Amino acid sequence: MSSVQETDTHPLLHVYGQEFHHDGVILLGNRVALTQLRDAIDDALSGLEPDTSANCELFTADGEGYNVYILVDDSATQSESWLRWTLPYTGSAARDFRDEDETEHPSNVIQNFR
């Protein structure tokens, strides 16, 4: 699957999201990117606030950069908070069909990162 041909310091990460219910999420990355992702997750988890967040900048293989945002929501599984989050599915048959005023998309929460 991989061969070490040269040392690459660019943090490359491809995220393949869930198209439908029960689909797996695939994170394909080099060691640099996965380490940065782990560190950002550690930063979010180590926050003193109950709902904390962190981010890191990564790249796809075509050189396009993007940010990964890690949000922590420690609310109970069936809490109002979790039930309000927009479902993450990308497939048209599985996407969240609730009205926008019934859901909260994580992109609305990360405005302070921009």
Keywords, please?
114 residues; two-stranded antiparallel ribbon; alpha+beta; 21% helix; 3 helices; single chain
Strand content: 15-25%
Strand order of the largest sheet: 1-2
In helices, the fraction of residues equals: 10-25%
Low-confidence stretches: none
Cα-based radius of gyration, to the nearest Å = 16 Å
Structural class per helix/strand content? alpha+beta
Mean pLDDT comes to 88
Number of domains: 1
Main sheet characteristics: 2 strands, antiparallel
Oligomer: single chain
Query: What is the H-and-E element order?
Result: EEHEEHH
Intertermini distance? 36 Å
Number of strands: 4
Question: What overall geometry do the principal axes of the alpha carbons give?
Answer: globular
Number of helices: 3
In short:
The chain is α+β, with helices and mostly antiparallel strands and 114 residues long.
Structural account:
A two-stranded antiparallel ribbon has the order 1-2. The protein has a two-stranded antiparallel sheet with strand order 3-4. A hairpin with a 5-residue loop joins strand 3 (53-59) and strand 4 (65-71). The longest helix has 15 residues, at 31-45. The protein has helices at residues 31-45, 80-84, 106-109; strands at 13-16, 26-29, 53-59, 65-71. It is an alpha+beta fold and 114 residues long. It is globular and about 45 Å long.
